[in-house]
Amino acid sequence: MSRAAQLVRWIDDNVLSLGRDMRLSFLPPLMVYMAAGISGLTAIVGTFFVKEYLGLSAEFLAALGFWAGLPWALKMPLGHLVDLVWRYKSWLVYLGASLVAASLLIMIGLLADPQQMAGVMRTETWYVLSALLAPIGYVMQDVVADAMTVEAVPHHDEAGSPIDQARRRAMHTTMQTLGRVAIIGGGVLVALANVFLLRGVNLLPEAARVAVYVRVHELALVIPLVSVAGVLFATGLQRRARQRLRAEGLSAAEVAARLAVHVQRPPVNWWVLGGGLLFALLSVSVGLSDLGWREELIFGASMSIVVALMWRLVRELDPPARATLLGTAIVVFVFRATPTPGAGQTWWMIDELGFDQQFLSVLSLIGSALTLAGLFVFRRFMAERSIYYIVGLLTVVGTLLMLPIIGMYHGLHEWTAARTGGLVDARFIALVDTAIESPLGQIAMVPMLAWIANSAPEKLKATYFAVMASFTNLALSASQLGTKWLNQFFVVTRQVKDPASGVVTVPADYGQLGDLMLVVLLIALALPLATIALARLAGLRSA
Q1: Where are the domains of the chain?
Q2: Record: fold of 22-537
Q3: Taking the alpha carbons of 53, 54, 55, 61 in that order, is the dihedral positive or negative?
Q4: CA angle 426, 428, 430 (to 5 degrees)
Q5: 452 vs 213: CA distance, rounded Å
Q6: Average pLDDT rounded to a whole number, residues 62-89
Q7: Is the pLDDT of residue 200 over 80?
Q8: pLDDT in tens, 413-447
Q9: In angstroms, how far is the first alpha carbon of the chain from the final one?
């Protein structure tokens, strides 16, 4: 077989086949996922808003990131609630969309009329409220989207014959892959939009620059509309399918079974609902208190609750499936829990490397586009390799790709630019590094999601998705917690001026950033590899 024929065959197997496997029933959850993907539309302008107008420290922003990530643990009770009120799950999407819209409207107010907003509450308080409302809304939408992916995979073909397990497993993998495609594809769209919207914005006077920031947030109001449209489309598809089957003479119970809809409501799991309620109440009470170590206390309590609930659920699985789920979840958790340098690294890139709004948009576009391509390129790799192998490879490669950034802190870009006539400068290195790293970003999650969709008990799909997602998403909270600790030890500050007088209140200081990035690199390398080794020694498997 010629190289051209091999390339055509590879494209057919890894890209075109995904399109052939696409079903109309997959589209509604993909629209909800797409809304999550385009949520990044305001990320870059949000970074510059915080840097230019708020005096929040890197440590505070890491702590805020912890609280903003914590609502994802609410997927526990919400997932079970979806199983209990399956017919009415769309209302959670409507509520979530409303919270996302409220978050965007707050930011529009802060940018367009800051004085009036400050007359009600401090600007920093408004920003914190906006940062917390949005993730709560996205959690509500995401838990329904997860359940919709299960509903989208049929149990019977159009002729009414049962679909065998192997084919349904392949369809679940396709559905979860397309879900990642929708999220990342949304990121590609918003990155492309930002490239044009933020072109030359750094050269504009302040009033014109703020007007661009406002326009970006106004455009972002399409996000909740997309998720609502997905739910309405799903309702229309279900209604049409029911009418067709009833016209063929099937009873209501037969129609429900054919469409893979819950025929009977599962029993109420008060451990899940009660644990979730306890977690929510504890989080709110501690978050509003003046207690020290608030983040640590909430993380410990939430981890205890999630682990206890997860253990009660996995007992329903047979021993091999239990060992597979536990091994997979633990390794993915540790991989996602590694800390980052935090906001200080971005501030340094802006101030010292000269990365402006448009260039950061270009980096985002390249990253999103190549991540999307990576889902196709590594599709078979994800299906054929174990999570242990995937996470181990991603750990090593990700660590190597952190080295150029650390090198630039020590002047690597100046050395390369001097020897290449200015070609290999900071922007060139950042572009190449992003291009290599990006395709690996979403690989670890797809096999785990597909395994849950295919192996969890039929009546508890949403519950399993939610509890396991709560566990792995708490890893991101752990990452923010680690980032906060590191920023307490390695203090990094950007210049902060008093908005009224223009006097510098906090000078820029990036002297400890190099040590911070080196420590992050060592942790990111050691923790996942050690966890994989220990999981193997404990006899745990991976998906």
Answers
A1: 22-537
A2: Growth Hormone; Chain: A; (1.20.1250)
A3: negative
A4: 70
A5: 40
A6: 77
A7: yes
A8: 889 988 888 888 888 888 877 766 655 655 655 66
A9: 33
